[in-house]
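For reproducibility, we list the full input for the phosphoenolpyruvate complex.
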Amino acid sequence: MVKTIKGIAASDGIATAEAYLLVQPDLSFDKKSISDADAEISRLQDAISTSDDELTKIRDTAKESLGEEEAQVFDAHKMILADPEFTGAVEQQIKDQSVNAEQSLSDVSNNFISIFEGMTDNAYMQERAADVRDVTKRVMAHLLGVALPNPALIDHEVIVVAHDLTPSDTAQLNKKYVKGFVTDIGGRTAHSAIMARSLELPAVVGTDSITKDATEGQTIILDGLNGAAILDPSDEDIKHYQKLAKDFADQKAEWDKLKNEATVTADGKHFDIAANIGTPDDLQGVIDNGAEGIGLYRTEFLYMQSEELPSEDDQFKAYKKVVEGMSGKPVVVRTMDIGGDKHLSYLPLPEEMNPFLGYRAIRISLDRQEIFRTQLRALLRASAFGKLRIMFPMIGTLQEFRDAKKVFEEEKTKLVEKGVKVSDEIQLGMMMEVPAAAILADQFAKEVDFFSIGTNDLIQYTMAADRGNEHVSYLYQPYNPSILRLVKHVIESAHKEGKWAGMCGEAAGDNIMVPLLLGMGLDEYSMSATSVLRVRSLMKKLSTADLKELAERAVNESITNEDNKKLVESYINK
Ligand SMILES: C=C(OP(=O)(O)O)C(=O)O
Ligand SMILES: [Mg+2]
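The corresponding predicted structure, in tokenized form, follows.
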């Protein structure tokens, strides 16, 4: 029977395919005493050998579809299974303590994990903890006879159904077969949603219940435009959505015509529309969509896709590729923004009650300066190949900005002394995403070269509402006058000091927000590459002269987010 599940529209597009449940099974077990140790060891060996066969298959498929680097992690898993120190210890404990294989595996694995995680001065060994955890899960699933989802083995078109997808889960999806995803939790500005938009994968998040509603192999229509998943659709539904998909494709073809045009409003004012990227692989999408620069390169994805801290040379290659690939157009690179919902398996962070308010971004960089300095050296070297700008994430105090700038200057001086070529025109700016900094924007503006407003975090922190929590997603209110006042203050403060202000949060590509931002004089708009042409088309129809007054009303007269949504809608439809 047809069932429609509502959620949050996270990435545009419509897709129809079979459901693939990416759901972690229950791996809990009871401790049992056993009398026949040999039989128990043979059960363990069967589970290990099945896991090993499975890993060979996964590695080969991953290599073909995702590349050598992504496949290497599975080799590391196979090595653990082949390591007699690990498997021998599990067998020994079964014999010595007469316990079941599940208990012994769990004890030995926990022991290895805590030893590896304790090696705080050896990043390589720390990484092995994540591998042991993963491989233990696989063997445990076989011991318990439950199925573990293996997304790397997907070989036909599917829509992934999951409770949640981490950014690294999302990075591993093979676009050839995965046509979209739908999750129980999450919000529009969570990083997996942002990645879905850059991968052009339709996505619906925050449905609350999709993992319970959908069954493996069931047909799903995913409506990423309106935020719905239709399970077991009728012929009529299929026809309706085919029409919607066609209209969307026609609309996109219309926008495509603007690809080689500059972004100019109806009254002849030029604005820069830039794109946000996560990896150098996203560059093609930026060029295909005619962006006038890169306004945010989220470099943490380079760290997340690596098995260890990326070396200076590896980083240099990635940054050079992006800067060079943009052929002289500006590229704003943000230094590593780890923490919150972005993790590195090889850099275990302390368990925190509130990770978004914790040890993250510039706070880590200033504390672990060897990581920060390596990144800055790689960036400085890449600066010789194009128009590089650097910004720091999560700056909350002027002291943090000054400290980060000092480290940058020190690394620059050292490289110049060594005769390394670096650009003398690198602008240094900051993300405006912490309310404390936005309120003091007038003071920061004297010391930075530019601001880039990160509305995803600025809204989360101003409204005190977790950006990834669907239960409070109604508080994601970009047009709320409280947010608009902060944004206006940031833009005006920049302009007073002769600096520029951009926005790289998701709101920069929002149809209601854009007219307000034009009215406030925002200089640069950076968004998912797939939004660039839609926004260029919108700006062509707008006149900044009228919008100044509209923005004034939105900031000074309106009280709610809804008021402002209506205000802009009635202006556009007039
Ligand atoms: C652009 C932003 O950064 P991120 O989404 O990576 O936190 C933001 O916070 O708005
Ligand atoms: Mg942010």
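Residues 263-543 form a domain with the TIM Barrel fold (CATH 3.20.20.60). Residues 393, 433, 454, 456-457 surround magnesium ion (ligand 2) (CB under 6 Å). Both points were considered when choosing residues for closer inspection.
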